[in-house]
Design goal:
Number of helices: 7
Order of helices and strands: HHHHHHH
CATH architecture: Up-down Bundle
Structural class: mainly alpha
Helix content: over 70%
Bound molecules: fe (ii) ion
Radius of gyration: 16 Å
Number of domains: 1
Distance between the termini: 22 Å
Length: 195
């Protein structure tokens, strides 16, 4: 469904739930970053009403997710910590050679956002069964979130195809998925959404 080329082992989910404060903090900041990414691409197609509306709505939705995660942090008696570096996102960006071409960078941003949404979803799906017994409320929260993040994955990829051309985008996307699978296989040791 998400088209990813590798699966996160259950071991990662066990690591994640061992330090919920760090995990939920990381998740909360990921929602903020997702909102920022959606806002940042509006500038590339300011005359495309549907795109502007979609990205604006998506940014708002991500901030609602942030509030939901923040509420959970409080409910669990935990603290929102400080943002940590997202090594995954940094490495993922390195897939694309540096370019000054604004249009190319735009399509790259759409593809990177799509992929990060897809991987978040996949990670949530691995987390849910592990949370089920001890934290059923949290399991339900991630089940609800899965749907909307899966939609975001499709939206970003669809716009990459629309603006970047389907054939060209799909060819790059396939290589990006292979690169990402190798990257994620080397991670999975930290209580972070993409760690
Ligand atoms: Fe989100
Ligand atoms: Fe999202």
């Amino acid at each position: 469904m998400l088209g990813l080329k590798s699966k996160t082992p259950e071991k990662w989910a066990k690591i994640a739930i061992q330090d919920l404060e760090i995990f939920l903090t990381d998740h909360a900041y990921n929602e903020i970053k997702a909102a920022q990414s959606a806002m940042a691409v509006i500038n590339h197609r300011p005359n495309h009403t549907k795109f502007v509306n979609t990205m604006s709505a998506l940014a708002i939705e991500e901030m609602q997710h942030f509030e939901m995660v923040y509420d959970i942090i409080k409910k669990f008696g935990l603290q929102l910590g400080q943002e940590s570096q997202n090594a995954y996102a940094m490495q993922l960006r390195k897939f694309f050679p540096k370019t000054k071409n604004i249009e190319e960078r735009f399509i790259q941003k759409l593809m990177l956002s799509s992929l990060m949404e897809a991987r978040s979803c996949e990670r949530f799906s691995v987390l849910i069964p592990v949370l089920e017994n001890e934290y059923p409320e949290l399991a339900q929260f991630y089940r609800d979130l899965f749907e909307s993040e899966a939609r975001h994955y499709r939206v970003f990829l669809e716009y990459a195809r629309i603006f970047g051309g389907k054939e060209k985008t799909d060819a790059i996307w396939d290589k990006l998925l292979t690169y990402e699978a190798d990257l994620i296989n080397r991670l999975g040791q930290k209580p972070l959404v993409h760690g």
